[in-house]
């Protein structure tokens, strides 16, 4: 699988999702590579932090920019799964990855400034699917409030995605400190004992998005 995590708006948790999906797949004994195509290098910094902890299992990673289609084609012959952190902007790396990826996950916070990018995202997906019709695209609503009174905001965000032809996962992620704490220490939520709910969110999300192994 070539799994692309990307979109048009920064701050919605793309790097966090890419990192946690990589560890999830590694736990499933998949041979994985994490590719950082985000100029900010958030995932590269996470891997460096992780490499300094001898207790943690190494995650192979590379950085790439520009047209990465051929790079991905070559790497896909060597790894079972490639997880791409494409960052939060429309870029050549994002567009080229969309032409060869098997799966694309697009995170959106339940906020107007995130959801208004759906117009352009819809066009990007149409262009990509003209070349790569088998591409599986899913939205996921991230950093959601945990208060029951705010649940309608999550439903409204999913409905907005659906209105642009982008199916949203049933599973969403909530605004939990453990995601940031894990990221800063090169960890995933699977390697932090303090919050089992975050672990359950990622497991459920991955199962719904990628299926079982």
UniProtKB/TrEMBL annotation:
Gene3D superfamilies: P-loop containing nucleotide triphosphate hydrolases (3.40.50.300)
SUPFAM superfamilies, per the entry: P-loop containing nucleoside triphosphate hydrolases (SSF52540)
CobQ/CobB/MinD/ParA nucleotide binding domain sequence ranges: 3-93
PANTHER family the UniProt entry points to: COBQ_COBB_MIND_PARA NUCLEOTIDE BINDING DOMAIN-CONTAINING PROTEIN, P-LOOP CONTAINING NUCLEOSIDE TRIPHOSPHATE HYDROLASE
Protein name in UniProt: Chromosome partitioning protein ParA
Organism per entry: Acinetobacter baumannii
């Amino acid at each position: 699988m070539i799994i692309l995590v990307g979109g048009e708006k920064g701050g919605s948790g793309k790097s966090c999702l890419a990192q946690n999906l990589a560890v999830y797949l590694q736990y499933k004994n998949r041979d994985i590579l994490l590719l950082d195509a985000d100029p900010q290098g958030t995932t590269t910094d996470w891997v460096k932090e992780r490499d300094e902890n001898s207790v943690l299992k190494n995650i192979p990673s590379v950085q790439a920019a520009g047209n990465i289609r051929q790079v991905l084609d070559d790497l896909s012959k060597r790894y079972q799964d490639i997880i791409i952190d494409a960052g939060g902007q429309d870029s050549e790396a994002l567009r080229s990855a969309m032409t060869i990826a098997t799966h694309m996950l697009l995170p959106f916070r339940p906020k107007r400034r995130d959801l208004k990018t759906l117009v352009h995202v819809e066009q990007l997906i149409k262009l990509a699917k003209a070349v790569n019709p088998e591409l599986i695209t899913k939205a996921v609503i991230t950093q959601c409030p945990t208060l029951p009174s705010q649940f309608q905001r999550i439903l409204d965000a999913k409905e907005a995605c659906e209105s642009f032809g982008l199916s949203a996962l049933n599973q969403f992620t909530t605004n939990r400190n453990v995601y940031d704490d894990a990221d800063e220490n090169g960890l995933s939520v699977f390697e932090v004992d303090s919050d089992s709910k975050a672990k359950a969110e990622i497991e459920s999300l991955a199962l719904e998005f990628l299926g079982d192994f």
